[in-house]
Amino acid sequence: MKKGAIFDMDGLLFDTETVYRKGWAIIADEFGVDRKPELADACSGTSGELTVRMVHKYHPTVDAEAYIHRVVQYVHDEAAKNLPVMEGAREILQYFHEHGVRIATASSSTVEQIEANLIKSGLRDYFDAVVGGDLVVNGKPAPDIFLLSAERIGVSPADCYVFEDGYNGLRGAAAASCAPVMIPDTLPPTDEMRAICTGIYPSLSAALAAVKQGAL
Asked: Number of structural domains, the chain?
Protein backbone atom coordinates (compact mmCIF):
# COMPACT_ATOMS: atom_id res chain seq x y z
CA MET A 1 0.00 0.00 0.00
CA LYS A 2 1.26 3.44 -0.88
CA LYS A 3 1.90 6.18 1.70
CA GLY A 4 -0.27 8.87 0.05
CA ALA A 5 -3.72 9.04 -1.51
CA ILE A 6 -4.89 12.01 -3.58
CA PHE A 7 -8.54 12.37 -4.50
CA ASP A 8 -10.37 14.36 -7.14
CA MET A 9 -13.72 15.70 -5.91
CA ASP A 10 -16.44 16.13 -8.56
CA GLY A 11 -17.61 12.80 -9.93
CA LEU A 12 -15.22 10.95 -7.60
CA LEU A 13 -16.06 11.81 -3.99
CA PHE A 14 -19.36 13.46 -4.83
CA ASP A 15 -21.94 12.81 -7.53
CA THR A 16 -21.63 16.30 -8.99
CA GLU A 17 -20.44 15.74 -12.58
CA THR A 18 -24.05 15.33 -13.68
CA VAL A 19 -24.81 18.68 -12.04
CA TYR A 20 -21.96 20.28 -13.98
CA ARG A 21 -23.29 18.83 -17.22
CA LYS A 22 -26.70 20.29 -16.50
CA GLY A 23 -25.09 23.61 -15.57
CA TRP A 24 -23.17 23.93 -18.84
CA ALA A 25 -26.46 23.45 -20.72
CA ILE A 26 -28.61 25.77 -18.58
CA ILE A 27 -26.06 28.58 -18.64
CA ALA A 28 -25.87 28.30 -22.44
CA ASP A 29 -29.58 29.18 -22.45
CA GLU A 30 -28.89 32.19 -20.21
CA PHE A 31 -26.20 33.44 -22.58
CA GLY A 32 -28.35 32.88 -25.66
CA VAL A 33 -26.08 30.32 -27.33
CA ASP A 34 -26.69 26.75 -28.48
CA ARG A 35 -26.20 23.96 -25.97
CA LYS A 36 -22.98 22.07 -26.67
CA PRO A 37 -22.99 18.75 -24.77
CA GLU A 38 -19.38 18.14 -25.73
CA LEU A 39 -18.32 21.27 -23.82
CA ALA A 40 -18.93 19.48 -20.51
CA ASP A 41 -16.50 16.72 -21.49
CA ALA A 42 -13.92 19.23 -22.73
CA CYS A 43 -14.04 21.18 -19.46
CA SER A 44 -14.22 18.19 -17.12
CA GLY A 45 -11.37 18.40 -14.63
CA THR A 46 -9.94 21.62 -16.06
CA SER A 47 -9.45 25.03 -14.48
CA GLY A 48 -8.09 28.48 -15.26
CA GLU A 49 -7.03 29.44 -18.76
CA LEU A 50 -7.66 25.99 -20.19
CA THR A 51 -11.34 26.19 -19.24
CA VAL A 52 -11.53 29.68 -20.74
CA ARG A 53 -10.02 28.38 -23.98
CA MET A 54 -12.52 25.53 -24.12
CA VAL A 55 -15.48 27.90 -23.67
CA HIS A 56 -14.10 30.18 -26.37
CA LYS A 57 -13.72 27.19 -28.68
CA TYR A 58 -17.38 26.22 -28.40
CA HIS A 59 -18.88 29.67 -27.78
CA PRO A 60 -16.60 32.26 -29.43
CA THR A 61 -19.04 35.14 -28.85
CA VAL A 62 -19.58 34.83 -25.10
CA ASP A 63 -17.68 36.30 -22.17
CA ALA A 64 -15.99 33.02 -21.18
CA GLU A 65 -15.09 34.07 -17.64
CA ALA A 66 -18.63 35.25 -16.92
CA TYR A 67 -19.99 32.02 -18.39
CA ILE A 68 -17.71 29.87 -16.23
CA HIS A 69 -18.56 31.92 -13.15
CA ARG A 70 -22.25 31.25 -13.68
CA VAL A 71 -21.70 27.51 -14.15
CA VAL A 72 -19.66 27.34 -10.95
CA GLN A 73 -22.30 29.33 -9.09
CA TYR A 74 -25.02 27.01 -10.39
CA VAL A 75 -23.14 23.93 -9.17
CA HIS A 76 -22.41 25.62 -5.83
CA ASP A 77 -26.08 26.36 -5.32
CA GLU A 78 -27.14 22.84 -6.28
CA ALA A 79 -24.51 21.26 -4.03
CA ALA A 80 -25.79 23.32 -1.11
CA LYS A 81 -29.17 21.62 -1.58
CA ASN A 82 -27.97 18.07 -2.18
CA LEU A 83 -24.46 16.59 -2.11
CA PRO A 84 -24.54 12.80 -2.61
CA VAL A 85 -21.37 11.02 -1.48
CA MET A 86 -20.18 8.42 -3.99
CA GLU A 87 -20.25 4.73 -3.15
CA GLY A 88 -17.24 3.68 -1.11
CA ALA A 89 -15.86 7.19 -0.59
CA ARG A 90 -16.28 7.29 3.17
CA GLU A 91 -15.04 3.73 3.58
CA ILE A 92 -11.82 4.15 1.58
CA LEU A 93 -11.01 7.41 3.36
CA GLN A 94 -11.59 5.74 6.73
CA TYR A 95 -9.37 2.79 5.77
CA PHE A 96 -6.50 4.99 4.62
CA HIS A 97 -6.84 7.19 7.69
CA GLU A 98 -6.70 4.19 10.03
CA HIS A 99 -3.62 2.83 8.26
CA GLY A 100 -1.60 6.04 8.33
CA VAL A 101 -1.93 6.92 4.65
CA ARG A 102 -1.69 10.69 4.12
CA ILE A 103 -4.71 12.06 2.23
CA ALA A 104 -5.17 15.14 0.04
CA THR A 105 -7.58 16.55 -2.50
CA ALA A 106 -6.53 17.62 -5.98
CA SER A 107 -9.66 19.18 -7.42
CA SER A 108 -10.03 21.83 -10.09
CA SER A 109 -12.61 23.52 -7.86
CA THR A 110 -11.52 26.29 -5.52
CA VAL A 111 -10.26 25.51 -2.03
CA GLU A 112 -13.29 27.36 -0.65
CA GLN A 113 -15.70 25.10 -2.55
CA ILE A 114 -13.80 21.93 -1.66
CA GLU A 115 -13.77 22.87 2.03
CA ALA A 116 -17.50 23.63 1.95
CA ASN A 117 -18.30 20.29 0.32
CA LEU A 118 -16.08 18.28 2.64
CA ILE A 119 -17.54 19.94 5.72
CA LYS A 120 -21.12 19.51 4.50
CA SER A 121 -20.55 15.81 3.83
CA GLY A 122 -18.68 15.13 7.07
CA LEU A 123 -15.52 14.06 5.24
CA ARG A 124 -13.23 16.99 6.11
CA ASP A 125 -11.44 15.35 9.04
CA TYR A 126 -10.02 12.62 6.81
CA PHE A 127 -7.92 15.08 4.79
CA ASP A 128 -4.42 16.21 5.70
CA ALA A 129 -4.34 18.77 2.85
CA VAL A 130 -6.92 20.47 0.66
CA VAL A 131 -5.54 21.56 -2.71
CA GLY A 132 -7.70 23.26 -5.32
CA GLY A 133 -7.31 24.59 -8.83
CA ASP A 134 -6.92 28.13 -7.52
CA LEU A 135 -3.56 27.21 -5.96
CA VAL A 136 -1.80 26.33 -9.22
CA VAL A 137 -1.08 28.24 -12.41
CA ASN A 138 -1.48 25.28 -14.74
CA GLY A 139 -4.59 23.15 -14.23
CA LYS A 140 -5.16 19.53 -15.24
CA PRO A 141 -3.92 17.87 -17.43
CA ALA A 142 -0.71 19.55 -16.21
CA PRO A 143 0.85 17.69 -13.25
CA ASP A 144 1.09 20.79 -11.03
CA ILE A 145 -1.87 20.14 -8.73
CA PHE A 146 -0.76 16.57 -8.02
CA LEU A 147 2.82 17.61 -7.34
CA LEU A 148 1.58 20.27 -4.92
CA SER A 149 -0.80 17.82 -3.22
CA ALA A 150 2.02 15.31 -2.72
CA GLU A 151 4.25 18.06 -1.36
CA ARG A 152 1.58 19.23 1.09
CA ILE A 153 1.17 15.73 2.56
CA GLY A 154 4.92 15.11 2.60
CA VAL A 155 4.89 12.06 0.33
CA SER A 156 6.81 11.41 -2.89
CA PRO A 157 4.49 11.59 -5.94
CA ALA A 158 5.60 8.08 -6.92
CA ASP A 159 4.27 6.83 -3.58
CA CYS A 160 0.82 8.38 -4.07
CA TYR A 161 -2.36 6.93 -5.48
CA VAL A 162 -4.45 9.41 -7.46
CA PHE A 163 -8.14 8.55 -7.65
CA GLU A 164 -9.80 10.27 -10.60
CA ASP A 165 -12.81 9.91 -12.89
CA GLY A 166 -11.71 12.32 -15.64
CA TYR A 167 -9.27 11.96 -18.49
CA ASN A 168 -7.47 15.24 -17.82
CA GLY A 169 -6.92 14.37 -14.17
CA LEU A 170 -5.57 10.93 -15.00
CA ARG A 171 -3.23 12.43 -17.59
CA GLY A 172 -1.98 14.91 -15.02
CA ALA A 173 -1.49 12.20 -12.41
CA ALA A 174 0.55 10.12 -14.84
CA ALA A 175 2.64 13.17 -15.76
CA ALA A 176 3.33 13.71 -12.06
CA SER A 177 4.59 10.10 -11.77
CA CYS A 178 1.80 9.21 -9.37
CA ALA A 179 -0.24 5.99 -9.62
CA PRO A 180 -3.44 6.96 -11.49
CA VAL A 181 -6.54 4.97 -10.54
CA MET A 182 -9.63 5.52 -12.67
CA ILE A 183 -13.10 5.30 -11.16
CA PRO A 184 -15.29 6.00 -14.22
CA ASP A 185 -18.30 8.26 -13.79
CA THR A 186 -19.61 10.01 -16.91
CA LEU A 187 -16.57 9.17 -19.07
CA PRO A 188 -15.81 5.56 -20.03
CA PRO A 189 -12.32 4.02 -19.95
CA THR A 190 -10.41 4.34 -23.22
CA ASP A 191 -7.30 2.62 -24.55
CA GLU A 192 -5.30 5.67 -23.51
CA MET A 193 -6.63 5.45 -19.95
CA ARG A 194 -5.94 1.72 -19.76
CA ALA A 195 -2.37 2.40 -20.84
CA ILE A 196 -1.64 5.09 -18.22
CA CYS A 197 -3.66 3.85 -15.24
CA THR A 198 -2.42 1.61 -12.46
CA GLY A 199 -5.96 0.28 -12.18
CA ILE A 200 -9.54 0.92 -13.31
CA TYR A 201 -12.38 0.03 -10.93
CA PRO A 202 -16.16 0.50 -11.12
CA SER A 203 -16.32 2.19 -7.72
CA LEU A 204 -14.21 3.32 -4.79
CA SER A 205 -15.54 0.26 -2.96
CA ALA A 206 -13.96 -1.97 -5.59
CA ALA A 207 -10.71 -0.01 -5.41
CA LEU A 208 -10.68 -0.40 -1.63
CA ALA A 209 -11.13 -4.16 -1.99
CA ALA A 210 -8.13 -4.22 -4.34
CA VAL A 211 -6.05 -2.26 -1.80
CA LYS A 212 -6.97 -4.69 0.96
CA GLN A 213 -6.05 -7.64 -1.28
CA GLY A 214 -2.68 -6.09 -2.12
CA ALA A 215 -3.64 -5.79 -5.79
CA LEU A 216 -3.44 -1.99 -5.76
From this structure: 2
